[in-house]
Amino acid sequence: MARKYEVTKSVKRVNAFTSWLARRGWSQQVVLTTIGRKTGQPRSVPVSPLDIKGVGYLVSPYGEVNWVRNVRANPKVRLRHGKQDRAVTLAEVPPARRGALLRAYWEDQKIARPYFDVPAQSPNPSHFLDEAEAHPVFKIIT
């Protein structure tokens, strides 16, 4: 059974530190800034982009979290890594097309594996298709 994601004080501390590193270009993560769907205020969170043959994607390993809801309400976001800060639009990938992307993310981001309900050893592609509804994926359009 997949682990449930909860925003605790320690998660907030880790996100703050990870964002600090990304803003300086010292990590592979980037800072995603969305506009809050309720407040209209900027909301930032660190994310790990996935690159497949030169095409960028953002995967939500923790399911339908706030940044996902904000992107669905307004797909125009900012991505920052070090001094590079760019405005992009995100387009949600339909669940039927997420399987291979989720598998690539699962293989690349070992820290996210507990949040996927797939076997740790030798998962097959059908496991990731089964997970597609639970993990939103967005294509980065520049």
What does this entry look like structurally?
The protein has helices spanning 9-23, 66-73, 99-108, 125-131; strands at 30-35, 42-47, 50-52, 55-59, 76-81, 84-92, 137-141. It has 142 residues and is of the alpha+beta class. A hairpin with a 6-residue loop joins strand 1 and strand 2. Helix 3 packs across helix 4. The radius of gyration is 15 Å and the shape is globular. The model has no long low-confidence stretch (mean pLDDT 92).
Structure keywords:
142 residues, alpha+beta, Pnp Oxidase, Chain A, seven-stranded antiparallel β-sheet, 4 helices, globular
Strand order of the largest sheet: 2-1-5-6-7-4-3
Report the radius of gyration as a whole number of Å. Answer: 15 Å
From the N-terminal CA to the C-terminal CA, the straight-line distance is 36 Å
CATH superfamily descriptor: Electron Transport, Fmn-binding Protein, Chain A
β-strand number: 7
**Number of helices, where a helix is a run of at least 4 consecutive DSSP H or I residues:** 4
Give the SSE string: HEEEEHEEHHE
Beta-strand portion reads: 25-35%
Helix content: 25-40%
Return the structural class. Answer: alpha+beta
Silhouette: globular
Main pleated sheet = 7 strands, antiparallel
Tally of individual domains: 1
Q: At CATH's second level, what is the architecture?
A: Roll
Q: What's the pLDDT, averaged over the residues?
A: 92
Give unreliable regions as ranges: none
Q: What fold name stands as the CATH topology?
A: Pnp Oxidase, Chain A
Q: Output the CATH class name.
A: Mainly Beta
